[in-house]
Amino acid sequence: MTARIVLVVVALLLVTVAAAQAAIPKASLKVMYWPHGRSAPPEVWTLRCSPLAGTHPARRIACGALAKHTADLRPATRACTLMPTRTSPQARIVGTWAGRSVDRGYRLGCPGWADLRTVLTGK
N or C, fewer C-beta in 10 Å, the chain? Predict the structure, then answer.
């Protein structure tokens, strides 16, 4: 009886994990992050979702954030009025998400940065 319960719990867990992965669209992205502005070379990662792969240090969290905030991958609908400094953190994402091209820049304090912080900074 105990073995059956364990088997049912494991099966439910596998179904839950599979459903969660299925909810994340396929992606192939390159993330460039300039932690201290563009005066130095960026940190560069690859990120693939469904299946999860790449060099991004927080792949699972990053793919989840992208699935939750897909609007932040679209071109910005309004300009960010914050003036960047030479040392302001910046990032850029290029590639494909759910079959659509992505090419968007981000700056600290501008739309998209807070929602995609883990994607952009790797932390």
Answer: N
